[in-house]
Predict the 3D structure of the following.
Amino acid sequence: MKIIFDTYAWIEYLEGTKKGKIVNDYLENDEIITPFIVLLELSYKADKKGWDMNKVLSFIKVKSEIVGVNEKFVLRFGNVYNDFKKKKRDIGLADAIILTTGLLYDSKILTGDEHFKDLNETILLE
């Protein structure tokens, strides 16, 4: 199965939490996709926490496919973002980018983010 790891999932894994052990099961058994925006959020977190982002990035590049923006993404994004905002008014661009990526890759999103709680595309880490 294809699984999108959002920032929440990667942080749980990198911090070795109980939820991180669940994330590890997906990492070992599924095809993992990491949206580019997640790397930007992790870079921020790494700087704040003193993590070595070079090591984090190297690991993610080995364990997942990193995906970015292309024409198909741009054409789909506006519709996804507007529909998402109708359900969750406080949704941000990063979450909308992650959701769009999940829809384009026909995959589930592994997250603990409450914004994704009631979406069919979500595997919620609880």
Q: What stands out?
A: Strands lie at 2-5, 31-35, 65-67, 108-111, 122-124. The two ends are 20 Å apart (CA to CA). Residues 25 and 54 are 24 Å apart (CA to CA). The first helix runs from residue 7 to 15.
